[in-house]
Write a structure and sequence with these properties.
CATH superfamily of the largest domain: Type I PLP-dependent aspartate aminotransferase-like (Major domain)
Largest sheet: 8 strands, mixed
Radius of gyration: 31 Å
Number of helices: 20
Number of domains: 3
Helix content: 40-55%
Distance between the termini: 82 Å
Strand order of the largest sheet: 3-10-9-8-7-4-5-6
CATH architecture of the largest domain: 3-Layer(aba) Sandwich
CATH class of the largest domain: Alpha Beta
Structural class: alpha/beta
CATH topology of the largest domain: Aspartate Aminotransferase, domain 2
């Protein structure tokens, strides 16, 4: 197409600019629309910027800015001041070029390939942002002292130094690491220095770093059975060889573990409050586990996700304290006990592993938000964390008692609750050959959320049971939900095989 070299007077039929509009953006959009709908033809020479400015009553700088943007995007060519034309090839031509090309035979063979790990990834579940329905397990978010947190955050911003606003140590904000080390030493019996603490985005992130540093594809790892599905998935995508180790009423069955795998690379446990069964590993089992790890030269990952919420007696000190920091990687989370969206947790790693963990953190996401760490540090050191935990412990104990009373009153023939010592959820074992999946489906129809224990099993058969969260629900809500669950149970069919609900 031959270009028109003589500038012409054109009427773009521009719409008036909206009140408050940025003039150059308005002019850019109007000229672009004129090009796309053909009022300005390809190759057409545009009037000079001064002429357009005079014609539409704007400054020449406004026209120049619009022309520069259109030139950068490929709608115009030439130089401002030396003649400007509509481009003969517009950006939209390239967007539609693929559809005009003949189909490619075996196109899938020519497309870029994914990694083997990508092929093992399952789709990520969509987050459930709806208001919780009993008995979804989560903390009581409406009880969090948001006003206190907001005041601390505002104070941190007002007093922020250059070092706080700049890049940070991949181990984390030093004052927070010092506060975490002091807290863990007094509350959990963890033996560590601040240099062994690595601030992470939660326990899952800490486990990911641990896998990167300690586990190779094909290595053998021992997992509690049952355990959280995400934990198993993280090892499967590596892929590692998973050996499920059954859990009984004393915790991880170490003798069964030794029989199943003498030389694991890593052993994953939740000794303070086994997920999802809620058991506490006995001291004898802990010592046996550490002995197994020493003989096998295996690392132990201790997931201490909610030991703060304990309702009877003092918690048994962390496994890491018995080990004296030699083989155990200890992990904890502020997100689990405060706010899920906070995404702050910590690892305590043996001294010889610190440099490797910090290097792995540096090449993944460098460090967590330093401002959030500073706020968390003040929240912890000024006593707000301890006060919140004590208040929630009392509140959750009351709500747990209300759940136990309601179940005993309305569901005694169908459900039995074991004695729950800690946490924000409990297991409900089903009687009368009820099937957990059927109960969960029927409960959902009555606006009640329960999770079958079977979804957490790796290999070991379990009696039919449900996971019930109680923390965010007041006593009337708990009683109402139990009433709905009772209605749901009336319509459930029974299984053909009987299980002893007390057997674990």
């Amino acid at each position: 197409m031959a270009m028109s070299r003589t500038p012409v007077s054109i009427d773009l039929a521009l719409k008036g600019a909206a009140p408050g509009a940025v003039l150059w953006q308005w002019l850019y959009q109007e000229i672009r629309a004129a090009i796309l709908d053909g009022r300005l033809r390809r190759g057409m020479r545009l009037p000079a910027t001064r002429e357009l400015a005079r014609q539409y009553g704007v400054s020449r700088g406004t026209v120049v800015a619009a022309f520069e943007q259109l030139h950068a995007e490929g709608y115009l060519e030439g130089k401002v001041g030396a003649g400007t034309n509509v481009n003969t090839r517009l950006p939209e031509d390239f967007l539609t070029a693929g559809s005009q090309s003949p189909p490619v035979v075996n196109a899938s063979r020519r497309s870029p390939r994914l990694s083997q790990l990508a092929g093992r990834l399952a789709p990520a579940p969509a987050p459930d942002l709806s208001l919780p329905r009993a008995f979804r397990p989560e903390p009581a978010l409406d009880e969090f002292p948001l006003d206190v947190w907001t005041r601390i955050a505002a104070r941190c911003m007002r007093r922020a130094t250059r070092s706080l606003l700049a890049d940070s140590d991949s181990r984390g904000y030093l004052p927070l690491r010092q506060a975490v080390a002091a807290y863990l030493g007094s509350a959990r019996g963890v033996v560590c220095t601040p240099d062994q603490v690595v601030i992470v985005s939660g326990i899952q992130h800490g486990l990911d770093l641990t896998i990167r540093v300690l586990v190779d594809p094909g290595d053998v790892v021992c997992l509690e059975d049952p355990c959280h599905p995400i934990v198993a998935a993280m090892f499967r995508v590596l892929p590692a060889k998973i050996v499920p180790i059954p859990v009984d009423s004393y915790g991880l069955d170490v003798e069964a573990g030794v029989r199943a795998c003498r030389w694991p690379k890593l052993i994953y446990v939740t000794p303070a409050h086994q997920f999802p069964l809620g058991l506490t590993m006995t001291v004898a089992r802990r010592l046996a586990l550490l002995d197994w790890a020493r003989r096998a030269r295996a690392w132990v990952f201790e997931d201490d996700y909610d030991s703060e919420y304990r309702y009877s007696g003092r918690p048994i000190p962390a496994l890491q304290g018995l080990d004296r920091g030699r083989w155990v990687i200890y992990s904890g989370s502020f997100s689990k006990v405060l706010l899920p969206s906070l995404r702050l947790g910590y690892l305590v790693v043996p001294p010889e592993l610190v440099d490797k963990f910090v290097a792995a953190r540096f090449i993944t996401d460098r460090h967590s938000s330093v401002l959030d760490q500073a706020v968390m540090c003040d929240f912890l050191t000024n006593g707000h964390f301890g006060r919140h935990i004590r208040r929630m412990r009392e509140l959750y104990a009351t709500r747990l008692a209300a759940l136990a009373e309601a179940v005993k009153s309305k569901l005694a023939e169908s459900i039995q609750l074991p004695e729950t010592e800690a946490g924000i959820m409990t297991v409900a074992w089903l009687n009368k050959d009820l099937e957990a999946n059927a109960v969960a489906k029927a409960a959902a129809a009555h606006e009640v959320e329960v999770t079958p224990i079977g979804v957490f099993a790796l290999k070991t058969p379990r009696p039919e049971g449900l996971l019930l969260g109680f923390a965010p629900y007041n006593e009337p809500q708990i009683r109402e939900a139990v009433d709905h669950l009772a209605l749901a149970l009336k319509g459930c069919s029974v299984r053909s095989v009987s299980f002893n609900p007390h057997r674990q």
